[in-house]
Amino acid sequence: MQIIYKLYQAQKLARASWGKTLWANLNTQVLTDGIDSFLRDFRKLSKTIRQMPIGSVLETVMKQYKNVVPLMANLKHEAIRERHWSMLMTKTGQNFDMSPTVFTLNNMFAMELHKYQEIVEEIVLNSIKELAIEQGVKDIGVEWEVIKFTVIKHTMGANASIDRGLVICSKIFFRNFLKIIFSDIFWALWKKSCRSWTTTQ
């Protein structure tokens, strides 16, 4: 009993120390290496000790901690915006202050993300798709801006490029998840692109 209690205390102190890290300074490798070390120590214990109720609880806690680390890494993706955090809070029923000076890993672990793995993965996946759309629309806007100044010499090529851009925009418009970003990203760029298109007529 004393052996497993020492291991419990050691991993608890380590998790408390890691939890003070600001979210902005997250290093998932440190967390993964640390919890893996405790799990290895746990597996070195005798089977009798590991199968004790307290042993089973300790193993579950450490595995849950380890499973949360990849989810946190996903939430650090460049595609994640404030709206995605708001969506996460709504779907999980959790609320937290995202200020970079106060938001720590403790706040993340308190969310018990292992219970919401599918939700996190869905939000991250959609955010990546949205980022691709944002970039695609921006590229079209840049291309059409250039066309305004070259259309006199290259009318046919310009029209082909415009038509291609319009087809892409039309396809994007009907993506369900675009509704999330339509108001603050797509609409402004669409109007700008349409103005460019109008000058070529």
> How many domains in all?
2
Number of extended strands: 0
Strand fraction band? under 5%
Portion of residues within helices = over 70%
User: What shape does the CA trace take?
Assistant: elongated
CA distance, first residue to last residue: 82 Å
Average pLDDT? 81
**Low-pLDDT regions:** none
Helix-strand sequence: HHHHHHHHH
Largest sheet: none
Structure description:
With 201 residues, the protein is mainly alpha-helical. It folds into 2 domains: 110 residues, no CATH class; 72 residues, no CATH class. Helix 1 runs antiparallel to helix 2 and helix 7 runs antiparallel to helix 8. The longest helix has 34 residues.
Helix-strand blueprint:
Blueprint: H1 2-19, H2 28-43, H3 47-50, H4 53-75, H5 82-92, H6 105-110, H7 117-150, H8 155-173, H9 178-198
